[in-house]
Design brief:
The N and C termini lie far apart (about 70 Å). The protein is mainly α. It contains 8 helices and 2 strands. Helix 4 packs antiparallel against helix 5.
Length: about 170
C-alpha cells in the first residue's frame, strides 16, 4: 500500500507499534497516556500510598541520590499527589481536584511522609549537615562561587544555618 505505516500512524495519532504492543500484552488498560514534549508516552498507574510504600520509595531514592530532608519531602509528596490523583481518596472520593476528601488524603500522606523523614533523620540515613558539606565541596571543585553554591542549597531546601556553616567550613579550608 502507498504510505503504509505512515498512513496508519496518522490515523491512530500515536506510534502504531506502541498501540500493538499494548494490545498484545493485554496491559492497555493499565497504561495511561501521558504527553511529554510533543510525544506520547505511557506510564503505569501509580500504587496506592501506604507507610511501607513511602518508606521503600524514600530508601530507594536515598540509595540513588544524596539529598536534603526538604528535597526528599518534595519528592515523596509528589508521589503522594500522583497516587491520590490516580486512585482518588477511597470509594467515596470527591469529583473535583479541590475535593475535601482528596485534600484529606493528601494531608494523611503528608503525615506519613513526615513520619518517614523523621525516622530517617533519627537513624542517620538522612543528614542535612553532611549533605550540605559534601554538596558545597563538590560545587566548589566545579568552580562555582559562594553565591551560586548558596543558591543551589536553597533550591534543595537546606536550612540557612546549615548553609552558613557549610560555607564557613569551606572558607576555613581554603
Amino acid at each position: 500500500p502507498v504510505g503504509g505505516v505512515r498512513v496508519l500512524h496518522e490515523a491512530f495519532g500515536f506510534p502504531l507499534l506502541l498501540r500493538l504492543r499494548a494490545r498484545r500484552r493485554g496491559v492497555r488498560e493499565l497504561l495511561a497516556p501521558r504527553r511529554r514534549s510533543g510525544t506520547m508516552t505511557f506510564m503505569k498507574k501509580p500504587r496506592k500510598i501506604t507507610e511501607r510504600s513511602i518508606e521503600n520509595a524514600a530508601l530507594f531514592y536515598l540509595q540513588r541520590f544524596a539529598t536534603s530532608s526538604e528535597n526528599l519531602k518534595r519528592v515523596l509528596m509528589r508521589k503522594v499527589r500522583r497516587s491520590v490523583r490516580a486512585h482518588g481518596a477511597g470509594p467515596d472520593h470527591g469529583t473535583g481536584p479541590d475535593s475535601v476528601v482528596e485534600n484529606d488524603a493528601i494531608k494523611d500522606g503528608a503525615r506519613i511522609v513526615d513520619g518517614v523523614i523523621a525516622r530517617l533523620l533519627r537513624s542517620g540515613l538522612l543528614d542535612d549537615r553532611k549533605y550540605a558539606e559534601s554538596r558545597v565541596a563538590a560545587l566548589h571543585r566545579r568552580g562555582m562561587s559562594a553565591g551560586r553554591i548558596c543558591g543551589k542549597l536553597v533550591q534543595k531546601g537546606v536550612d540557612i544555618e546549615v548553609r552558613q556553616r557549610a560555607l564557613a567550613a569551606l572558607a576555613a579550608e581554603t
